[in-house]
Amino acid sequence: MSEQQQQGPAEPIEQGVLDLAARVFDLARGGATAELVEYLDAGVPANLTNHKGDTLLILAAYHGHPETVRALLERGADHGRINDRGQTPLAAAVFKQSAETVQALVAAGADPDAGQPSARATAQFFDLPEMAALLG
Fold it and tell me: What are phi and psi of 69, to 5 degrees?
């Protein structure tokens, strides 16, 4: 018997939980750092992941919110987590040419060669010498 069969069918997620998750993802996407931090400090996981594998950190990085990125990193967000398309927060920040976000992620130890395409490959493909320089 498989583990799924032993445990029975998964319980549906309550609408309130889904609404909260949507709210938290919107805060990361919008760079609402202070409000997002309140949720994180109240127990929302810093590595919360949506149905596409995007973490709060990936969304904040992609939308160019370095303050939000730093707050997430300070609360344990994994800078190496890759979404379902193979993208990292660092590659997202490079693609959006957010220098301050790239610097925050590199300072936290993000690997410029992780993911597909990697941050380094993204900088090369889109001819972004400023971003490539930040990656070292």
Answer: -60, -50
